Amino acid sequence: MVTSVTQPEAQKTGEQINDLRSFLAAYRAAFPDDVIEVDKPIDTNFECSAVGRHFEDLNKFPLLLFNQPITANGNVSKFPLAVNVTGDRRKLAFAINSTFEDVSIDWRKRVSEGKHKPVVIDRGAAPVKENVLVGDQVDLRDLPIMHIHEMDPGPYITAGMLTTFDPKHNIDNCALQRGFIAGPREIRCLLVSRSHNYLNYLAHQELGKPMKIAYWVGHHPAVFMGAHSNLGYPESHYATASAVSGQSLRLVPSETLGDDFLVPADAEFVIEGIMVPGKRALEAPFGEYPRYYGPQRMGEVFDVTAITHRNNAIWDQFLVGMNNNYGGTQEEASIYSVVKRVVPEVTRVHVPVSGSGRFHAYIQIRKTHDGQPREAIMAALSSSYMIKHAIVVDEDIDVFDDRWVMWAVATRSQWDRDVMIVPNCYGSILDPSTGERGLGCKGGIDATMPAPPRRFPKRLNVPDKVLDKITLEEYIGTERLARVPEQRDRKARR
Amino acid sequence: MEPVREIWFKCEKCGGEAYCESNFERRPDAEVMCPFCLSRYKLTDVRLD
């Protein structure tokens, strides 16, 4: 239940409100070299994504602020464009005051332990109401929405939290779902068939009523992560946004969808509209997280009724298909909790970018019994239809580094003994190797050493005390160290 | 023979090739849109395979 107040608690106490701007300021102060502003005009039609792609080739993911993005209308936008706010695990960790290794567990812990609840504030106090455009005043092509990949049919909203309410309980649901800008006031969405927004869509269809819907774009990543938490249906994502950010999420009534349709007051943009069940139009191909284009389909049509935005609003864009740390990071905590029930000796789980942030799970255990790896594999594979390959390794293997996981596979597994194959499972329809309707095969590899008391050859080492004593900075120098070339020309990968 | 996952088509105007979901073939009048130039066609007119 949302509490209604006229003066926000945060304002009464002087507490800093969590929004995209407060995050940018804090992150810039903490990591000034990881925020790059681009002042030259640059086209949102592929050029901004080319910059993102070049950085990915360098294995670097700075937060990019394009101050003069050129829109689909061919004009320099009055709104700056932010990229890589949430696409990088380090920034996710910073957003919730966690660490690179523990961010997933801490994210999940905040969801379950959060005490803060959303509040409703007056329109006059809501920054997102500083500018209100309705009806013909709306032209989505004025926004710096990126056309990311070559076969995408146009600009796509990729970091928009698509929000609907279930018609029976009026509980909000938020999901990160793509939207193709098909005209000045038309967005074509992908409501994934297993998603709760799609369940709301079906419920409205059954009632013969149009569904009220909104995208909100640009908020503190902790709010974004909280709103995007995996929950049951129907459960409030505004509540988990409050829980994860550690602050009551401020909400405000919509402009055109009624006072009971609440939107985040501190978002940079809110796009309001309706979806008439059954009204669909062509959408995609679209460059999706597995780094392939998902096929053209009939997308659900979102007819826009209003856009509200802050003064000097910042558009936020997610580079789908590049460095997908985001989806995998959330998945890790779910896998960890499922594996933990059957193998309490699990120590870490990582869902790496090499599996497109979905398909591989690396599971590190403190092995005491030879049966543990298979138990862990079975639990991990059944924890989500997305997880396709589970690899179990020992505690000495860094699960955040593919090289060492693959080394463990190379030197600690024999596939006639250590591989499990489970055919005919749910898979992702966006995994191009699955069959019709996403029917796929899952599998696991036990890449662990035998459990004690059996002994195993010792891996190479330089004495720890010497490693700690001898640093490259001291013996080679920081400046010279930075000039050492990378091992290969990364352009060769294209 | 394994059922197709995608149906490929080729734009008559710009020559671009793309694909749509396999369920499009269940609708005899299904249209597709070239993602490169946004031209629209009946799928049966531009289908490649």
Structural summary, described in words:
The complex is a heterodimer of chains A (494) and B (49). With 494 residues, chain A is α/β, with parallel strands linked by helices. Chain A folds into 2 domains: 20-317, Electron Transport, Fmn-binding Protein, Chain A (Pnp Oxidase, Chain A); 325-446, UbiD C-terminal domain-like (3-Layer(aba) Sandwich). Helices cover 27% and strands 25% of the residues of chain A. In chain A, strands 8, 9, 10, 11, 12, 13, 14, 17, 18 and 21 form a 10-stranded antiparallel sheet that branches. In chain A, helix 5 crosses helix 9, helix 7 (221-227) runs antiparallel to helix 8 and helix 9 (326-342) crosses helix 10. The longest helix of chain A has 17 residues, at 326-342. Chain A is globular. Chain A starts with a strand and ends in a 12-residue tail after the last helix. Mean pLDDT of chain A is 93; it is low at 3-8. Chain B is mostly beta strands. Helix content of chain B is 8%, strand content 33%. Chain B has 1 helix and 4 strands, in the order E-E-E-E-H. In chain B, a hairpin with a 6-residue loop joins strand 1 (6-10) and strand 2. In chain B, 22% of the residues are buried. The model of chain B has no long low-confidence stretch (mean pLDDT 93). The A-B interface holds A 151-154, 282, 284-285, 293, 295-297, 432, 434-436 and B 2-7, 18-22, 24, 31-33, 35-36, 38, 40.
